[in-house]
Amino acid sequence: MPMSSLFPLLLTCLVSFLLLRFSTLLDPGAAVPHVKRSAPLPLRYRHDGAFKILQVADMHFGNGAATRCRDVAPEVGGARCSDLNTTRFLRRLIEAERPDLIAFTGDNIFGGSATDAAESLLRAISPAMEYNVPWAAILGNHDQESTMTREELMTFMSLMDYSVSQVNPPGFLVHGFGNYHVGINGPFGSGLVNTSLLNLYFLDSGDREVVDGIKTYGWIKESQLAWLSATSKELQRNFHAPALAFFHIPIPEVRGLWYTNFKGQYQEGVACSSVNSGVLGTLVSMGDVKGVFLGHDHLNDFCGDLNGIRFCYGGGFGYHAYGRSDWPRRARVIHTELKKGQRSSWMGVESIRTWKLLDDDKLSKIDEQVLWRHGEDDSDHNVYLSGLESKISVYVV
């Protein structure tokens, strides 16, 4: 660009900056525009081949110190227990686990107790932003009960620091707000630096609806499943990478896990919609989803197998959410590791493990298990490997 064209642009920027500074000096209390601090995109695996996700389910954040805890033991704090206990727990987890991504899986705020939805969200998610941790969020059935609609909430969260959340996918007309995909690329220095090795699908499961005059919970609609299937097909065009899905309200089939060899606690009835929209069939037909992570039912924290896909609850996280006084608040960790190939090059995902951490003196780790291991349950794992090896061979000499 010639200097004659560049000078007016530079002059405009300088004038705008000086006007902003001058207005701030005249009125120190004036609002200063905030530029979003973005997460380093694309997200990618660490140099040691690991990527760790912290699932935070049902914070139910209200108004901070003014919002009392529910269902806690006297030793937890009694009258002094508040939303600040939730914030403290999140900070402890970030410092202990150093997650690469935090997934907030709905009911992040409790609308009935939040007098200002934006302020409550900022307080609830502040530890992620303070520690510069990328985070993604979806909505539950209580988030919109305060001062913002579901669309406004997702738009606001997409603009917050270090958020990778999206309102909806570009180019698709889908139901709800908060349907999007996040890819996790290979580590820097590897042949897969520009390839997504793990795909994360986030879906809006709605809030409440009326069917035939009867109130029920929301469900994932046909347009969302169409987008999900199309996105999965496009992502798997070159090779099959595993995927994880996150939504708030469980599907009806989760009820049947009571009769299986699940791991964790199944302590309350599954509060799902009366409508079965075919989510499980869609996920199975896609072939890439290995785990689904849910919220909504705070006293359930189990994982169980439905047609080869592990469905896992996060367990109740927030202190303003209902719980049990003898059952500590908890969070779920999802740990994925890459496979080492020839000449120490990184390949695709080798394993996906999970465990839960309790908010006790030791941050006790419980119910560790392998959700998926490459090659153990996939008829198409040879396609997956050959696709990765052909991609890597372009870079490795």
Would you mind describing this structure in some detail?
By secondary structure, the chain is of the alpha/beta class. Helices cover 24% and strands 23% of the residues. The protein contains seven helices and 15 strands. The chain has a seven-stranded mixed beta sheet with strand order 1-5-6-9-10-12-11. The protein has a six-stranded mixed beta sheet with strand order 4-3-2-13-14-15. The chain has a two-stranded antiparallel sheet with strand order 7-8. Strand 11 and strand 12 (309-313) form a beta hairpin. Helix 2 (83-97) packs parallel to helix 3 (117-130) and helix 5 runs parallel beside helix 6. The two termini are 39 Å apart. The model is unreliable at 379-397 (pLDDT under 50).
Question: How does the SSE layout of this entry go?
Answer:
Blueprint: H1 3-26, E1 43-44, E2 50-56, H2 83-97, E3 101-105, H3 117-130, E4 135-138, H4 150-158, E5 180-185, E6 196-202, E7 208-211, E8 214-217, H5 222-235, E9 243-246, H6 279-286, E10 289-294, E11 303-306, E12 309-313, E13 330-340, E14 346-358, E15 365-373, H7 381-393
Parallel strand pairs: 1-5, 2-3, 3-4, 6-9, 9-10, 10-12
Antiparallel strand pairs: 2-13, 5-6, 7-8, 11-12, 13-14, 14-15
Helix pairs in contact: 2-3, 5-6
